[in-house]
Design a protein that fits this description.
Length: about 375
């Protein structure tokens, strides 16, 4: 599909307080327009009656994985941490990673680089505007209306960074910082996947080999959520799961991520300098449903801009991922519940404007 033109982001009427704005612009531009007191109707999100508001969990609610213990030479510490990791993937599909070895200064630098990118003049960001998910560098806002009937309260930058690294050439120095950050997150993810393989009772490098992880698809996805005058009517990103194996996320000091657990929504308040990690669709497939791809969403506020950087790590595009044979046993009542599908084909459904989730690879129940 050819990249979309700048008309996708055409400016609305100068009276930005009107709630009937019909043309799509970047949310940052919308917020910076004078007199904005309400959101345009096409940003209004109708909450499902069964969709509860997020609550604040107890301090020790979310699982925490100490990366230094996962990579320890002490077999007892490593074994205990692998058990904790396995339990976190089963019970929550989400955990925080501490003592991961990625410097706080690098994490701060990459967040600052993202802020500088969104502060670039509109015409410079528009060089990367497009709808094609295979466009290596893509700037946009909201979401494709073929899939959703309303706009998200966010602007985004999505960059394919592996197996080939791409990146905008502005702001100066941002690409070098991002390259190092993506390299380090990939190293952390590799060790997490090795621990997860062991937790599943498989050989340590099983997931790496079966997903061709060395050639795996890695995305650098930045979301900017400007202050919203009516946050109760808008949504940053609705409830969804990720298509990857694992996604590593960091944010500035503004919260907004919510995780669903046992039909309840919980606000996530990160431990400083931690990675927020969630399991994705393809880890659920590979584990034959032992691990669940966790549903999560992003809510907005009316006071401050939130920036999050999500780095999903997936199989190689040409790899068809199915349940590990070692985790399938028809005789003991553990049949395969998912059918293999190439990762590229799984993602292609996005281009076709169709929902992309686990339902279309689930084995029909007789």
């Amino acid at each position: 599909m050819a990249p979309a033109t700048s008309s996708l982001f055409a400016e609305t009427s100068t009276d930005m307080s009107r709630a009937d704005a019909t043309k799509r612009i970047s949310v940052k531009t919308l917020v910076e327009s004078p007199g904005l007191t309400s959101i345009p109707t096409n940003y209004s999100y109708s909450t499902n009656p069964n969709e509860s508001a997020g609550s604040n969990p107890n301090e020790d609610t979310f699982p925490v994985i100490d990366f230094s213990l996962l990579t320890s030479d002490d077999p007892h510490k490593r074994s205990k941490t692998i058990q904790d990791l396995d339990r976190a993937c089963q019970d929550w599909g989400f955990f925080m990673v501490v003592n991961h070895g990625v410097s706080e200064s690098l994490m701060k630098e990459v967040l600052e680089g993202c802020q500088e990118f969104f502060n670039l003049p509109v015409e410079e960001k528009m060089e990367y505007a497009g709808r094609d998910i295979w466009q290596p560098i893509r700037f946009g806002t909201g979401v494709d209306v073929k899939v959703e009937k309303f706009f998200f309260w966010r602007d985004f930058l999505k960059v394919i960074v592996h197996p080939q690294f791409h990146f905008p050439n502005k702001p100066k120095g941002f690409g070098e910082v991002a390259r190092e950050y993506c390299k380090r997150t990939r190293e952390v993810t590799t060790e997490l996947l090795r621990g997860i393989s062991k937790g599943l009772g498989l050989e340590e490098c099983y997931i790496e080999k079966k997903t061709d992880f060395d050639a795996g698809f890695q995305l650098f996805a930045v979301n900017l959520y400007p202050p919203c005058p009516q946050p109760e009517l808008a949504i940053g990103i609705p409830a969804h799961t990720d298509h990857s194996l694992l996604t590593l996320l960091i944010e500035n000091e503004i919260g907004g991520l919510q995780i669903q657990h046992n039909e309840e929504w919980f606000n996530v308040n990160p431990i400083p300098n931690s990675f927020l990690v969630n399991t994705g669709d393809h880890l659920e497939i590979l584990s034959n449903g032992r691990y669940k791809s966790v549903s999560h969403r992003a809510v907005v506020n009316n006071t401050a801009t939130r920036i999050s950087i999500a780095v999903p790590h997936g199989p190689s595009l040409e790899t068809a991922v199915g349940p590990a044979p070692e985790l399938v046993d028809d005789e003991s009542g553990r049949p395969a519940i998912y059918m293999p599908m190439k990762f590229k084909d799984y993602l292609e459904r996005l281009l076709e404007g169709r929902p992309c989730n686990l339902d279309h690879v689930r084995v029909p129940v007789a």
